[in-house]
Amino acid sequence: MKSNSDILVQFGNKVRELRKAKGLSQEELAYKANLHRTYIGMIERAEKNITLENIKKLANAFDVRLKVLFENL
Question: What is the phi/psi pair of residue 61, to 5°?
Answer without folding.
Answer: -65, -35
